[in-house]
Amino acid sequence: MSQSKPSDIPVQDELFSAGSSYLEHMQELYHSSPESVPAEWAEYFSGLKDVETSAQTGHQAMLARMRPQISAGSTQHYDDITTLSKQGDIEYPSRAIYLIQAYRMHGHMHAELDPLHLNPRPSSPELDLAYYGLSEADLDQMFPTGDLTGDHQMPLGEIVKLLEETYCGHIGPESMHITNSARRHWIQSRLERIRSKADYDTDTRRHIFGRIMHAEEFERFLHTRYVGQKRFSLEGGESLIPMLDAMVQKAGSNGTREIILGMAHRGRLNVLANIMDKSLSDIFSEFEGAQLQESAQGQGDVKYHMGFSSDVQTPGGVVHLSLGFNPSHLEIITPVVLGSVRARQCRRKDKNKTEVMGVLVHGDAAFAGQGVVAESLQLSKLRGFRVGGAIHIVVNNQIGFTVNPFDARSTTYCTDIAKIVQAPILHVNGDDPEACCLAIEVAVEYRNTFHEDIVIDLICYRRHGHNEADSPEVTQPVMYRRIGELPSIEQLYRDRLIRDGVLSAEESDQMIATYRDCLDKVRRATNRPAPSPVNSLQGRWEGFVFDGAEEPDTGVSADVLSTLARKVHRLPAEFSMHAKVEKIYDSRIQMMDDKQPVDWGCGETMAYATLVHEGGWVRLSGEDSGRGTFFHRHAVVYDQKTGKGMVPLQQVENGTLSHFIVVDSMLSEMAVMGYEYGYSVAEPRSLVIWEAQYGDFANVAQVVVDQFIAAGETKWNRMSGLVLWLPHGFEGQGAEHSSARLERYLQLCAENNMQVASPTTPAQLFHLLRRQLMSRARKPLILMAPKSMLRNKLSFSPYADFTTGRFQPVLADKNRQIDLAGVRRLLICSGKVYYDLLAERNKREIMDVGLVRVERLYPFPMDELKEQLQRYAGVVEVVWVQEEPQNQGAWLQVNSLIRQALLENQKIYALTRPASAAPAVGSIKRHKDELEQLMSAAFAENTDGLQG
């Protein structure tokens, strides 16, 4: 849309940047009437005369070839309309149909959408009557209208008027990319019926003015009272406020009970004050740097990242509004909101997906530029992620920080990305609040009718810079010169209502004065309390605690285990199972009858089965999670004759909130992890697990880890029990299939913000998963999950480990033949390398080296490790062994903690692979050589190869 250009850009660059269709249009004008085009255009085209040839095909000739022919075999052109006999022309009646379709396709390009009027509209010959062999002489002729809303036949002049008003006014609809005819026709009919014009009564129009006035006066107040402070002003886009207000009222009237709203910075404070009804006192106190009340938890965040929730009365009842907390990574809130919506719909048993609705407010540059938008859109129709459609509002400032649209995207509109899911798009002029309210009402109706996404492109501008300390005219002089000349939206709408007799100047002045006085009184109040901390332990979170939760006993009785094992591993007789899966299922029943050691797949499945049986809610999603990447889970099984899938764990669901949900996600990490985080925050009584195919695939979602999972509690008091299931272990599979980047998660650990664990037995996994849901605290769990261990019989657990006890942060050496007094070296490790060390010790028949496993790396089990070190009081050499390179893995984070636990006579060493830029080598031979060197150094008689 609008863009400003430096004045010294050559004319040629400016011409070509305008687009080929516009250039051709100007060239045609020049040829027909040189004096009708600006001087710089005339100069440009005159310079082209030397290169023109008689063989050059003009645009008009090309158009003539493309137009519908009069009749078969005819050589007449529509240009020669005066010689055309209407009675003998069978094509003549259908020409209006072509015109109607052209307006539906191209009308938005000619709509009055840009408040700045900086760019000329492109040339669209398809909207010219002459393109179809028509002229003004035909305006009174009756034409069939096809599926155009209205009479079956209308005069051509009336048809053109209807099309102009519907598609070329202050709303420019795009729907022709939608292949579903019902959806496409709904949009067309809905707008054509009213010609894209609102027909609000006097009270509604006065209400809209009040909303606009509050939005603008709030921003003006902040601008003058808190000079230079960042607030990411909404000025220029104030129509967002009456839009959101109209949306809430419309949705509430249609039965919506919750609206989850996500947005970035711009306009957030305005939305908090004028839509969410956040206390003005709190907002002003935040500007003044007041400290939170002493009861506040965590470190807080800047004011334009904060979320809020409130209840709003609508004609259909109370609607609960929830504005998500959003970090500076702008669009990352999109999947988080969608996950939160899905969890609430599931809790409400909202099968029609009408009671809870998601609304996303985007910026134009971010919507077009950030990949998580496309990922989130792709989730919209997937059965494991559908939320019944989201409403997207793009606050289109026509600039991204300092970047013009032609440098910010390759598409015509910033909203074109939404066409990948065939979402209708309504472009609307932000200087027309009534058109904006109409657009959002249509959006709510469409969403509730078709349960699909819809996008509103709110084309406006940014009156100030990216932030209030910026000087935007430095990079956009033309744009900001134009903005400086524009009256505000409040002034424009006020004048419009006065002209229409809806409002008098005196009434509007009084409304403005009253609101300004209110703002000033709140600010000048001397007894304002400190801002209230976010109370996140209410509603669904009541009864939970941030810290200090007691450790639950996670063992399950033998009778329950045996019964559940049969429920989830015996399928109906008519179900034809794959032979390999049937064997695995039969083995699991044997395991739960204490006839075989319990493997990892069985331990995990029984954790889910027991939780769901006890009334729990489990959701597992990720790429190929149903079967499991390593052919170990088989939570979904398929009939080999019919191909029909079945989820056996759902057979133990018990109660209204007892669920087992397993989802094979699309090939996405960032959006899906964000979605599951949002789900976990919205429903604390669920065990939500996101599984990476390989652990380091989570790298693609690092922003979710950094800004939500690791820091969400300390910034916003928002707890999450999300589990990140990250396969980890060095087996010679190369750099990308070895490491889950354990070091990165440990680096993010502080203030008891999350847990990092690497269980080495199925029983440990069983207790860890059960603990995650049974505890009264909710902390994210970063789970270094097994790969080769899945089939390592040395790692399998005895049945008795499942019936009693709980997760153990440290595991002692299980070899009872080792005399602790005779141990010369103690090896401490975490994860799969334990079994490498165990196998090597058994191979060498070494009895003077002890093995201790740290199963939970954060919070670091200091007391439990000290207890083990006390058992080896005579040992001097304590060696931390890891399979990761020295600069990776756990060593750099745990070495100081281990030193604190050591006895006075003990010294710590480290045994690792050499520091490396990549996590692992690509050669299986080199991998084995490195492993052999590690094992040799671990059991050597001296300390060569150890890091002191």
From TrEMBL:
<dbReference type="Pfam" id="PF16870">
    <property type="entry name" value="OxoGdeHyase_C"/>
</dbReference>
<dbReference type="GO" id="GO:0005829">
    <property type="term" value="C:cytosol"/>
</dbReference>
<keyword id="KW-0786">Thiamine pyrophosphate</keyword>
<dbReference type="Pfam" id="PF16078">
    <property type="entry name" value="2-oxogl_dehyd_N"/>
</dbReference>
<dbReference type="InterPro" id="IPR011603">
    <property type="entry name" value="2oxoglutarate_DH_E1"/>
</dbReference>
<dbReference type="Pfam" id="PF02779">
    <property type="entry name" value="Transket_pyr"/>
</dbReference>
<dbReference type="InterPro" id="IPR029061">
    <property type="entry name" value="THDP-binding"/>
</dbReference>
<dbReference type="GO" id="GO:0045252">
    <property type="term" value="C:oxoglutarate dehydrogenase complex"/>
</dbReference>
<dbReference type="InterPro" id="IPR001017">
    <property type="entry name" value="DH_E1"/>
</dbReference>
<dbReference type="GO" id="GO:0006099">
    <property type="term" value="P:tricarboxylic acid cycle"/>
</dbReference>
<dbReference type="GO" id="GO:0004591">
    <property type="term" value="F:oxoglutarate dehydrogenase (succinyl-transferring) activity"/>
</dbReference>
<dbReference type="InterPro" id="IPR005475">
    <property type="entry name" value="Transketolase-like_Pyr-bd"/>
</dbReference>
<keyword id="KW-0560">Oxidoreductase</keyword>
<dbReference type="Pfam" id="PF00676">
    <property type="entry name" value="E1_dh"/>
</dbReference>
<comment type="similarity">
    <text>Belongs to the alpha-ketoglutarate dehydrogenase family.</text>
</comment>
<protein>
    <recommendedName>
        <fullName>oxoglutarate dehydrogenase (succinyl-transferring)</fullName>
        <ecNumber>1.2.4.2</ecNumber>
    </recommendedName>
</protein>
<comment type="function">
    <text>E1 component of the 2-oxoglutarate dehydrogenase (OGDH) complex which catalyzes the decarboxylation of 2-oxoglutarate, the first step in the conversion of 2-oxoglutarate to succinyl-CoA and CO(2).</text>
</comment>
<feature type="domain" description="Transketolase-like pyrimidine-binding">
    <location>
        <begin position="598"/>
        <end position="792"/>
    </location>
</feature>
<dbReference type="GO" id="GO:0030976">
    <property type="term" value="F:thiamine pyrophosphate binding"/>
</dbReference>
<dbReference type="InterPro" id="IPR042179">
    <property type="entry name" value="KGD_C_sf"/>
</dbReference>
<dbReference type="InterPro" id="IPR032106">
    <property type="entry name" value="2-oxogl_dehyd_N"/>
</dbReference>
<dbReference type="InterPro" id="IPR031717">
    <property type="entry name" value="ODO-1/KGD_C"/>
</dbReference>
